[in-house]
Design a protein that fits this description.
Structural class: mainly alpha
Radius of gyration: 20 Å
Number of domains: 1
Order of helices and strands: HH
CATH class: Mainly Alpha
Strand content: under 5%
Shape: rod-shaped
Distance between the termini: 49 Å
Number of helices: 2
CATH architecture: Orthogonal Bundle
Length: about 70
């Protein structure tokens, strides 16, 4: 699942919980799904952050030092 898809579904879950009108069991299921989606989003963001850090490190290592 992409970050955008997970975030969109998480937003839907939040709206449904805020709107109310669902049973306690449905609320718990929505909450659990929201937790799963939040973890998935965080993992995707962490992965993107690691890729950026690796690219930045690679770029810095490939850049020759400036003369003094």
């Amino acid at each position: 699942m992409s970050y955008e898809a997970a975030r969109a579904e998480l937003e839907d879950v939040v709206h449904r919980l805020e709107a109310g009108g669902v049973t306690l069991e449905q609320s718990l299921a929505l909450w659990e799904r929201g937790e799963e989606l939040a973890r998935a989003c965080q993992a995707l963001l962490d992965g993107a952050r690691a890729r950026l850090h690796a690219a930045d490190t690679d770029r810095a290592a490939a850049t020759p030092p400036r003369p003094a």
